[in-house]
Amino acid sequence: MLDSGAEGLGSNRSREAIGYIYSLRRTVHTHRASVHQLAAKLVAALLRVARVTAGLAESNGSLPPGL
Model pTM? Predict the structure, then answer.
């Protein structure tokens, strides 16, 4: 028989550890998703800047039309 301080598979410490691991996993997943969202926003912003820059260069004649 296990006493209340023993480390069994169903012990409170085991359940707490498993809960902590799942919590960390959820945190890492959330962080990874937010990093991907940030990267996508950065790429979109860079593309907008490139389009504006190309449009300005085309309008002042430093680039041929369509580039």
Answer: 0.51
Give residue 60's identity as a one-letter amino acid code.
N
Confidence of residue 32 (pLDDT cuts 50, 70, 90): confident
Query: Between vectors from CA 39 to CA 43 and to CA 57, what angle results, nearest 5°?
Result: 15
Q: Distance between CA atoms of 26 and 49, rounded to whole angstroms?
A: 35
**pLDDT class of 9 with cuts at 50, 70, 90:** low
> Per the structure block, which two tokens stand in for 15?
């359940």
With beta carbons less than 8 A apart as the criterion, state whether 39 and 33 touch: no
CA dihedral 34, 37, 42, 48 (to 10 degrees): -160
C-beta separation of 67 from 54 below 8 A = yes
Secondary structure class of 48 (helix, strand, coil)? helix
